[in-house]
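C-alpha cells please, single chain.
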Amino acid sequence: MIRMLITGGAGFIGSNFAHYTINNYSNYDITIVDKLTYAGNLHNLDGIADKIRFVHGDICDKNLMDDLIKNTDIVVHFAAESHNDNSLRDPWPFIQTNINGTVTILEYVRKYGKRLHHISTDEVYGDLPIDSTDRFNEKTRYNPSSPYSSSKASSDLLVKAWIRSFGINATISNCSNNYGPRQHIEKFIPRQITNILSGITPKLYGTGEQVRDWIHVDDHNSAVHTILEKGKIGELYLIGANGEQNNKFIIETLLEIMEKNKSDYIHVNDRPGHDQRYAIDSSKLQSELGWRPKYTDIKSGLEQTVSWYANNESWWKDKKSEIENNYAKQGQ
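Here you go.
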C-alpha cells in the first residue's frame, strides 16, 4: 500500500480526488488533513469516511505536518484559499495558507525525502485577450492579477525553488477552471444551479463575455493520477480539456438543461479586475503522458453536475441564503 496524504481533502477538488482515488485504485492508504474553513465540508467525504483517515488541522502547523509527512509516501497538496472575490476583500488568509502553508509542506517533504505533487491554477498566468487564439503553456510567463492568483504563483515558485535548490521529488500542475459535484455554492456554476433550484434568478457578471477553459473535476483528478504515475520529477504540467466557453454560454446552457428559458437571467456588477480569458494548452500532458479527458462535451459534464446538486439539496440548502446575502451587499 502507498501511503498518501491529501491536504485540503475536505474541499471541492481534494474531496473529489479522494473519491476518485478510492473508486479507481486499491493501492492507496489515504490520510486527509483539512482545516475545515468555510470551504471545507466533512460531508464531502460521505461514502468514503470509513476508507480514509481524517485529521482536522492546519497545514501551517509545523508539528502536525512533521508528523503527517513523516508517516506518508506521497503528499498531494490541494489545500488553498481559492476564491478571487474573497481575496479582494481580505488577502491575509491567502498569504497564510497558500504561501506559508506551502513552505511548511516543502520543508517536511525535504526533511523526510517524500514525493510531492503541488496543485495550482492557470490564474497564475493572468489572462488573455478575448479575441486571442493564444493559450497558456508550460513556458508562459507568470502574470497574476489578484491576491489569490498572486499567492498561488508564489507557492508555485517556491516549489520550483525547493526542486532546484534542495532536489525534492516534486511535480506541479496548473489546471483550468474546475466544475462538478461538491463545489462550494459561492462559485459561478454551482451558484447559478442552486439559484435556479431555489427559484432565484441567475446572475451574470458584467456582459458575461469572459471566457474560461472549463474542466470537469474528475478529468482534473484523472490527470493528477497520470502525473503521479508517469510524470517526470521536477516538471510542470498544464491540465485542460479544451473546454473554452464564455460565462454567458454557461449560464444559458444551465438554464436549458434545467428546462428554463435560456434568457431568464440578470446582469450584475462585474468583478473588479475580472480576467477576460483563460485557455490551456495541455498537449505536453497528452503527448508525453498519454492522458485524455472523459468529458469532452461540456454539456454532458454540466448535466452530471446539475443532477448532483438537484439530488443533494441537503448539502447546500442551509448555506444558500447567507451566500446570496453576501453577494447582494456587493451588488452581485
